[in-house]
Design goal:
The protein has 13 helices and two strands; from the N terminus they run H-H-H-H-H-H-E-H-H-H-E-H-H-H-H. It has a two-stranded antiparallel ribbon with strand order 1-2. By secondary structure, it is mainly alpha-helical. Helix 7 (160-183) runs antiparallel to helix 9 (207-233).
């Protein structure tokens, strides 16, 4: 297994090593935008990792996952508006709110499948979107400015470097958590539900309980991304809950590699960096990016990271094919 995944694991290690030195490069080159931009990439990667948990491993196509990103951002914004800047309190409120909303909406939406599940998750997200638009005392559709960043005592997210490394640590922790979770009994049952839920029920598993647990975990993880995003932009806006953001997260997961641990991070990197590069070339960058995404999705079943996994599999088949000849040639 380690042999088969040698190239893909090496590429993942290289990406992580490059991410570690981004602040050093930004300081050396005098490019603060690079640090802010890569922090945004990590925030969206964290949200995509949370979506991949239910979409890639559970087969639940949530088209309203941006709801939890918005709730995380507003948990910071509303508390800061009332002079509560303690980061631990904001973190606790974010996890509690996202977990409670995820539990409530999950109990209702997970009783459906297919297009009905997609539409219900979208409806919940739009409902909260219009709720925050109607809160005129908190900015309404203009959004809410955040004057003070989250203060965790030993460190504060007011520093761009601290915020960047906090986001990176959370992304790496989320990747490790996903890796361990999907390999455990819980993850096996969740993947079994994606393939054939009726058979899993016949085997005695309470599938709704497993799928709901994954949905709530995913909601809380996405809320963490919202907390970081509010600190990064100094702003909480109803636009964070919009269906376009949910669609962007789905594109990241599919583009990077749905159902692979490292895929969401790869998808966020490829999509957001491609956007910036194409924006510098032309105002009609979407006319180029759209066909490129379609091309990758059509040619790679598991996205960009799937290319590396397929390459690993091809090398392994080649190694096994030549192995008998080598053995026969031995004295």
């Amino acid at each position: 297994m380690m042999m088969r995944n040698k190239i893909s694991l090496g590429f993942a290690a290289l990406v992580v090593a490059l991410l570690l030195v981004v602040p050093v490069y930004a300081s050396w080159a005098g490019e603060p935008f690079a640090l802010t931009f890569m922090a945004r990439v990590l925030v969206f990667a964290l949200a995509a990792i949370s979506l991949n948990l239910i979409l890639g491993y559970g087969g639940m196509v949530s088209f309203g996952h941006a709801l939890y990103m918005g709730l995380g951002a507003y948990s910071v914004g509303l508390l800061a508006q009332h002079e509560v800047t303690n980061g631990w309190v904001q973190l606790g409120v974010t996890l509690a709110v996202c977990g409670a909303v995820g539990l409530l909406t999950g109990v209702i939406s997970l009783r459906t499948t297919g297009i009905a599940f997609i539409m219900i998750t979208l409806a919940f997200a739009q409902m909260f979107y219009y709720l925050f638009v109607s809160l005129k005392q908190y900015g309404g559709d203009d959004g809410l400015s955040i004057s003070a960043r989250s203060d965790f005592g030993l460190f504060t997210l007011a520093s761009p470097v601290t915020l960047y490394y906090t986001a990176l640590v959370l992304v790496l922790a989320a990747l490790f958590f996903t890796h361990r979770l999907v390999a455990a009994r819980f993850g096996m049952v969740l993947r079994g539900c994606r393939v054939n839920e009726r058979r899993m029920k016949a085997m005695g598993f309470h599938t709704l309980r497993y799928r709901l647990s994954a949905y709530v975990l995913s909601s809380m993880l996405c809320g963490l991304a919202g907390l970081l995003y509010a600190n990064l932009t100094g702003f909480a806006s109803p636009a964070y809950l919009a269906w376009t953001v949910s669609g962007e997260l789905i594109v990241m997961v599919v583009l990077g590699g749905m159902g692979t641990v490292f895929g969401p991070l790869a998808g966020a990197l490829v999509l957001l960096i491609s956007e910036e590069l194409l924006k510098a070339l032309t105002d009609h960058w979407m006319m180029i990016l759209g066909p490129l995404i379609v091309l990758v999705v059509l040619t790679a079943r598991r996205g960009v990271y799937g290319y590396l996994l397929d390459w690993d599999a091809w090398r392994e088949r080649k190694r096994v094919a030549v192995l008998p000849e080598s053995v026969e040639g031995q004295p």
